[in-house]
Amino acid sequence: MKPLTVxxxxxxxxxASIFVxxxxxxxxxxxxxxxxxxxxxAQSVPQLSDLVSxxxxxxxxxxxxxxxxNFTVFAPTNEAFDNLLEAIGQDDIDDVxxxxxRNILEFHVNSSFISSGQISPGAITMVNGEDAxxxxxxxxxxxxxxxxxxxxxxxxxxxxxxxxxxxxxPSIAPVVGTVVAPAFFNNxxxxxxxxxxxxxxxxLSVLLGNGPSDEGLTLFAPxxxxxxxxxxxxxxxxxxxxxxxxxxxxxxxADLPTTSGAAVAVPTLGGDVYLSNxxxxxxxxxxxxxxxxxxxxxxxVVHVIDRVLLPPTQTINEIVGEFVNSDPAEFTLLAAALQRxxxxxxxxxxxxFTVFAPTxxxxxxxxxxxEAINETDPETVAxxxxxxxxxxxxxxFSSDLMSGDVTMMNTxxxxxxxxxxxxxxxxxxxxxxxLIPTLLNVHATxxVVHVIDKVLLPAQ
Length: 460
Fold this sequence. Notes:
By secondary structure, the chain is of the alpha+beta class. The chain folds into 3 domains: 8-163, FAS1 domain (Roll); 177-305, FAS1 domain; 316-452, FAS1 domain, CATH 2.30.180. It is built from 16 helices and 23 strands. It has helices spanning 8-18, 38-43, 49-55, 59-66, 78-88, 98-106, 181-184, 190-198, 201-208, 224-229, 239-243, 316-324, 332-340, 360-365, 370-375, 378-385, and strands at residues 22-23, 29-30, 71-76, 109-110, 122-125, 131-137, 140-143, 146-155, 158-163, 217-222, 246-248, 264-268, 271-277, 282-284, 288-297, 300-305, 353-358, 404-407, 413-417, 422-424, 433-434, 442-444, 447-452. The chain has a 7-stranded mixed β-sheet with strand order 4-3-9-8-7-6-5. Mean pLDDT is 92; it is low at 1-25.
C-alpha cells in the first residue's frame, strides 16, 4: 500500500506527541511513553479547536475519550469544519441538531488502536455503528473521501490522525445538498425531520429524489415553531401532511403567481395549497406566511414557512356538523337555518365557497332563535344565508380580503374593512359584524369559513 503522506506545515504540531524519544544518563534510547489523553492532545492543537468545541456539547464523549481505552480518532481540522458548514448551509456548528452532530462525531472514532502502519484499504467500523471506507491512490490515503494528512499522535488511551474533511456517515450523506439538508442540519427544524423519519420510507425517497416529473422539487419547510403554531404535537403518521408541503417541480419566489381578491390553487403532492400574493408577502391557506425563500438544494428549492400546512379533510357541511355535535355545541342555529332554507346539502358540493359564518350568539342577538327560524318563510331565511356567501366560486382567505365591496351569492354587496376586520351588511346594520381573528381561514375541502359575531342582513 502507498505510504501515508502528510502536510508539512502541520506535522510540526504533532511531533512532540508522535515521535519524541527520551534519553537516559547512559544515552540509551528509551521508547516514547505518551502522557496526554486524546482530548488533551486535541486541546493542545489550535487547528483542532472546532473539534474540541463540538465535543464539549457531549460531556460523555469527552469523558470517554479522556478515560481508559484504546481508541483511534480521525480528527477533522478547523478548515474541514468550515467546509462542512458551507456544504450543509449552516453558519455555526452549534446550529446543527445535537443528535446529528453526535452521529457525525462518533463516525470519527474507532474503538481499537490503528497506527499508520496498520491502515490499509478496506472498511472499518466506527463507534456510531457505520463502516468507513479507506482508499489509497497516488495522491495519498483517504477515509470516506477525507485525506489523512497527519498521522500517529499517540495518546495514553489511543492514537489520533488528522484528516482534511469532516466525514459524513453513509446514513446521512445522501441528505447533503438536497432540499432536506437545510432542515436536517438545523436545530430549528427538528420536528420536521422527526416527521420525515417517522413517515413511510417512500417519503424520504421522494424528498431525496428529483420528483415524479424528474424536474426537481419545491419544499415548504415548517420550523419547530410552525408545528407549535398549528398545534401539531404528534408527528407519527404525518405522511399526508408532509406531501402537502412538496411541489413537483422547482418554483422559486419569482415564479410564484400574484393574486387579487382570491387565492390561487398550487398543486402539491398532497393536494392543492392556496396561495395569496398581493404584494405584501406570500401566504398559504390564509394563515401560513412564507418567511424565507429560494434556499437552493441539488434537487430543488426550499421556502421556509411559519405554520404547518394541514390538508383539509372535511366539507363545510361536515365542519358545521362537527361543531353542532361538540360540547359545547356551536353553529346549531346556522345548521337549523340551512335546513329551513332547503340549503342543507349546498355546502356538501364541490364549491368552492367562501362563507362568513355567524355564531349561535350572533343569531340570538338578531332575534333568530330556532323557533323564530322555523317560523320564518324559507325564502327569507335563504335570502339571509346567501348574504353570507361570496358570489364568486373562489377561496377568499383573510390574506385575500381587501377593503371595499364584495358581491355575495344573493347579488347584494357587503363592505369589508380590513383594518378593523369588520363586515358591513347591505342593510347597513350598526355596528358592523366583526371577523373573529382566531376563527379565520377554517379550511374545508370545498371552501373556507370565516366566523363572525353578527348575522348579516340583506337590504330587503
